[in-house]
Amino acid sequence: MRLRRTAVLALGATVLAYALYHRTDAYRRGNRLFYSDGRPNRAGRLFGSFWVALSDRGLTPSYMVTLETVGSRSGKVRAVPIVLGEHYGERYVVSMLGEQSPWVGNVRAAGGHAVFRHGTRTPVRLVEVPVPERPAILKAYLARAVGARPHITVDPSAPIEDFAGVSADVPVFRVEQAR
Fold this sequence. Notes:
32% of the residues lie in helices and 26% in strands. The protein has helices at residues 2-21, 25-28, 42-56, 102-109, 134-144, and strands at residues 35-36, 39-40, 64-70, 77-87, 90-94, 113-117, 121-128, 172-177. A hairpin with a 2-residue loop joins strand 1 and strand 2.
């Protein structure tokens, strides 16, 4: 019981600290606390591991899941926390760090096969969305994924046309049932 209470207090303190960090200039200038040069630093990997653990147990909202892929070079299973975007009833996975995010290459090398973990394991197929279809999806994604806003350089309240300029740099995948 004591361990559970300590875990709940630690979780609450972490969420509060992260919420306060979202209001700082450091966050607005590119989320430097967790990312350097577009890649997660040690703090980012630690925080990501924390979210993976919560998501694996189903303790996060349903749109925050763990994406499990197989490393295209290493062959090892890789897990990253992601926020699922939703647009007209379809679910989407967006790479907030762009093409350089390792999971993007892993998904492409695996032919789109991946697994979502959120309490249970769900095999999925991720189909890359053509660039002209991405702007509206990116706008909807930024409305939900607050942590992605410093990485995608368009204001979330901007018109959809403004997202066309960055849509080629941000991979987007539609989530389908695995066959």
